[in-house]
Amino acid sequence: MSDYTIKNIKDVEDAAAGRATGVEARMGRSSIGSKDLGVSYFRYDAGKKASYGHRHKVQEEAYVVVSGGGRMKLDDDIVEIKQWDVVRVAPEVIRGFEAGPDGLELVIVGGPRPEDGDGEMISDWWVD
Fold it and tell me: Does domain 16-122 have CATH number 2.60.40.1120?
């Protein structure tokens, strides 16, 4: 194994393809061969809100808004996010997204996690 990896995140399989309309999700942890660092890409079409949320047992994450903007729900708080905002989220906080009129693109960086993952999906979490 090399001491470095170069991988275009857009070449990673879209995990949302065929499962969620208006969402693109590319998880890069295994593609870059890292045990301690995860890097992912998410894109939400304009106005798209994910009704689900997720949280972790041990993995802390940081979300970087690379284009567009919208809102992020963090437990019971809803905050506005815009291009180049960085949001750090503790593992146990439930989080979800709603894209604004220009859509929302995020790069997510995650810390160490158990080998089999530690994410928990919460369905029907952010509903009107």
Answer: no
